[in-house]
Amino acid sequence: MGTLDKILTTAAAAVVLGGAVLATASPASAAVRDGVCDSGEFCYYFNSGNQGSLSDFTGSVGDYGTRQPSCFDFKGPGTGKGKCVKNAAASVWNRSSKTVRVYFNSNYGGSVYQDFAPGAKGNLKAGLKNQNASHQFGPSPSSGRVNMSYALYQAGGGYVSCGFDGYVHTSGRHEGIDITRSVDSDVHALVSGQIINLVHGRNGASGLSTIAIYNASLNKTIIYLHSAPLSSLRVGQQISRGQIIADEAWHGVSSRDVAHTHVEMRPGRQTRAAKSVRDSTLSNPNPNSFWISQGYNVR
Asked: Which of 56, 114, 202, 204 could make an SS bond with 41 (beta carbons 3.0 to 4.6 A apart)?
């Protein structure tokens, strides 16, 4: 073989070898996200109950993207295949060895999130289902406080639907925190004290209910609106922290679709909630530091 032939043959071999290297690099990367929930991965499913197409991850992602072809998408067979993952997942399976936290906002932000322990399977809670924007492997440990939404219902699935002074579509200054889960969920007292006002109300816009519980040592009144007080409650009754006081309902609001519990902290002894709708003045201070002092995250 001539010298020129050897040079050409060597060059051709290098091209083939280079092509082989490039060819193996792509499948190796694709194997990381191949639409199969392998050991060590965290997986989203398009449907509840771990059904539909899945998207598998081996690490944290702060921004999934929103358009093809650059977004993280559902790759497995089934309903949802090819759709972008952001705001489209309904359930998860954590096959990694770390806790994984799903966030409402991109870049691991927002007050709404949900943790999945290693090996856990489950549906995303209300407020995160089809509202997932990022996830994080091994998130920072919590402060030891309990989320208000969990403490109010003593069950998962609750979330803050409107924060203090958080009206967006309603005129006025919101004087409390609205928390929702589902109609008939048990509502628990967040702080102990004595019932000083009790109005049972009824479902519908004109049937506002009220439970006002005064804690003398804190000199604070916690007022619960819209939920249905238990028939056994009486003015003067002492209530313990965590005691069931009501069932979630829509007393004083337009329909069951917007059922929630309005929780309001008022300084001193107060029998009624401050006016919120169509009132431009805040009568209550921001309660977040109070709730933190009581061992709650305002979530």
From this structure: 56
